Amino acid sequence: MRKIYYLATCDTCKRILKQLDLPSNFEKREIKQEEITVKELEVLRELSGSYEALFSKRAKLYKERGLKDEVLSEDDFKGFILEHYTFLKRPVIVNGDNIFIGNSKKVVEAAQESIHNT
Q1: Cβ neighbours of 54 (radius 10 Å)
Q2: Cβ-count burial of 43 within 10 angstroms (0-12 exposed, 13-18 middle, 19+ buried)?
Q3: Are the CB atoms for 67 and 59 separated by under 8 Å?
């Protein structure tokens, strides 16, 4: 699977998409227009090792709901990601068995190297 989950209204996602210069066989998935499915999320969890790794603690709703003061389980992380797209850390880039989560320079560079060397 070669896919990127991103948010079209996110300037950081736009910049990263441009920087990655994805090949045509890469599927682009805009998560606001087409919500992530349970099956897709389970595949991402398998690749990443946990739902928490896919969860954005920078989401506005995370702060608004006071979730930082709660102890969240893996089921909680899964439920929140499925409930609202903003809880998915973005972008999520899947290149075969490799997954790259988030927008740090290091993650984006590793994704770029993986994409263009396969």
Answers
A1: 25
A2: middle
A3: no
Q: Which of 30, 78, 27 is nearest to 52 (CA)?
A: 78
* φ/ψ (deg, to 5) at 32: -80, -40
Reported pTM: 0.94
Instruction: Name the strand (E) or helix (H) holding 81.
Output: helix 74-83
Take residue 87 and report the two structure tokens written for it: 């809880």
Q: What is the CA radius of gyration of the chain?
A: 14
Residue 109 has pLDDT above 80, yes or no: yes
Q: How far is CA 105 from the centre of its chain?
A: 15
- Here the tokens at position 73 are 């389980």
